[in-house]
Amino acid sequence: MRLTTKGRFAVTAMIDLAMNNHGGPVTLADISERQKISLSYLEQLFGKLRRNGLVSSVRGPGGGYNLAKKQDEVSVADIILAVDEPIDATQCGGKENCRDEQKCLTHDLWADLNNHIFEYLRRVTLAELVEKNRDREQDVAVVELRDSRPNKRRPEPVPA
């Protein structure tokens, strides 16, 4: 499977958008800063996501991007396919010409793997990923709160 940074960044940016979309449109500059993804790269990705109906844009001051569908209606496969990322583990791109214009001995194995990967990514929704990340953020916040409390231990007695 050739899942490059294009697909990974698109999924990451969509999770960020979904997690931060409660107060109106989210700017690509904010996503870029939070996720450390180049702004120009995000502009390219969001152009494709918009053309594929996954996000909508709002122009002008206070503008940015909103989700165009409910989080539970967007799968990881939808996001990856929207940015033209192939989900393909075959050597020939599914053309069955990998060995002297013939299907190689392992073509069916890799094609079956493609199907399993695609079905898995089709089942994972943006809503699930947002929920997992919110749970993780809450766990981190609890640890940070616990670690920031003053030490309640009694002072060691000073020898006389």
Topology, element by element:
Elements lengths: L4 H16 L7 H8 L3 H13 L3 E4 L5 E4 L8 H7 L24 H17 L2 H23 L12
Antiparallel strand pairs: 1-2
Helix pairs in contact: 1-2, 1-3, 1-4, 1-6
What does this structure look like?
Helix 1 crosses helix 2 (28-35), helix 1 (5-20) packs across helix 4 (76-82) and helix 1 crosses helix 6. The protein has a two-stranded antiparallel sheet. The protein is built from six helices and two strands. A hairpin with a 5-residue loop joins strand 1 and strand 2. It is extended. The termini are far apart. It is mainly α and 160 residues long. Helices cover 52% and strands 5% of the residues. The protein has a single domain, classed as Orthogonal Bundle (Arc Repressor Mutant, subunit A), CATH 1.10.10.
A few lines on this structure:
With 160 residues, the chain is mainly alpha-helical.
Any idea how many domains? 1
Assembly classification: single chain
Beta-strand content bin: 5-15%
Order of helices and strands: HHHEEHHH
Q: Strand order, biggest sheet?
A: 1-2
Q: Rg from C-alpha positions?
A: 22 Å
CATH fold node name: Arc Repressor Mutant, subunit A
The end-to-end distance, rounded to whole angstroms, is 71 Å
**Residue share in helices?**
40-55%
Would you count the extended β strands for me?
2
The 3D shape can be described as extended
Number of helices: 6
Class per helix and strand makeup? mainly alpha
The CATH architecture designation is Orthogonal Bundle
